[in-house]
Amino acid sequence: MTLSLFAFGRTSGSFSLPWAFAGRPVTLHCYRAAAADARAPLVLVQHGMLRNGDDYRNFWVAAAERYGLQIIAPTFSNEHWPGVESYNNGGVWTQDGHLAPAAQWAYQAIPELIGQLRREGALQEQPVYLFGHSAGGQFVHRLASLLGVRGLAGIVAANPGWYTLADDSLGFPEGLGGVGLAPDALARLLATPLVILAGEQDIDTADPNLPAEPAALRQGPHRYSRALHYTEYALQQAARLGVPLAWQLHSVPGIGHDGEAMSAICAHWWFEGRMPSADGLARLAGRIVS
Are the C-beta atoms of 270 and 154 separated by less than 8 Å? Predict the structure, then answer.
């Protein structure tokens, strides 16, 4: 770990730090509330397809000050992590179609970062939360699907473009098949306290950034319908296996594809224990932020 990353737990305000995972740069856009110390909760924020971790860090500044948080938005640039295969789909498959070593999957950067911060003393034993919106929502729910969520106090995927279904008979990324998961991986996933935030107005079928591959279209015509399909599919799988489903789907009235609004809603959910009021949601509605 670099000395600059060690300084994370001792610097307040907005700043950015260099880091690397699997030999490739990852920029850490950070914010630490003035009242926060090294024991303050940490929120990791995964950006959308614009690779704009600085914006997503900024979306969480007000919540950081209100609740006394530390924020890191790990940013996977298109230069070093090109396309949906490297980021959204985690680099699970190599360019020639072979399964990449699991230790090199982009999703592994998150537990590696947490572990390094703790080993260096920049973090203590406080809770760590993980949020992702849009392409970041794809990243986050696939991380939960393949790696589990051990060490995370909460995990929220907001408005993903499409989903990896809880089905090990379908190849990844449509399902969990072909990536060498343990036999109990599906049951473990269904028992994961995953939260999906789905904007009821995220229904634009002509959005040029909406995934349109056949597997995505099979899940529905827009992001909101795909969230409903994802959770209904998981309910059917849980019933088939005879296990409860621990996921929560929150359908969010008035909100479209808005990473800033969903960041505020997620912060309210985690740190006030409830969704915002109808008036609060109305104040947040009406933007498009990927």
Answer: yes
Distance CA 174, CA 153 (A): 27
Strands 194-199 and 154-158: parallel
What structural domains and CATH numbers belong to the chain? 3-284 (3.40.50.1820)
Do 102 and 180 form a contact (C-beta atoms < 8 A)? yes
110, 146 Cβ separation under 8 angstroms: no
Q: Give residues with Cβ within 8 angstroms of 197, minimum separation 6.
A: 156, 157, 158, 159, 250, 252, 262, 265, 266, 269
CA 22 to chain centre: 19
* H helices, E strands: number in the chain: 11, 8
Report the run of H or E that residue 279 belongs to, with start and end: helix 278-284
**Residue among 111, 109, 121 at smallest CA distance from 10:** 121
Quote the pLDDT of residue 37: 85
In a 3-state reduction of DSSP, which class is residue 74? strand
Residue 9's pLDDT is what? 65
Partners of residue 290 on adjacent β-strands: none
Pick out the chain residues at pLDDT < 50: 1-3
pLDDT at position 61 is 97
Burial 42-71 (b: 16+ CB within 10 A, else e): bbbbbbbbebbbebbbbbbbebbeebbbbb
Which pLDDT does position 3 carry in this prediction? 43
Buried b (16+ CB within 10 A) or exposed e, 81-100: beeebbbbbbbbbeeeeeeb
User: Which pair of tokens denotes residue 34?
Assistant: 């003035």
Q: What is residue 4's predicted lDDT score, i.e. its pLDDT?
A: 56
The pair of three-digit structure tokens given for residue 174, joined into one six-digit string: 């449509």
Which of 165, 163, 157, 162 is closest to 259 using CA atoms?
157
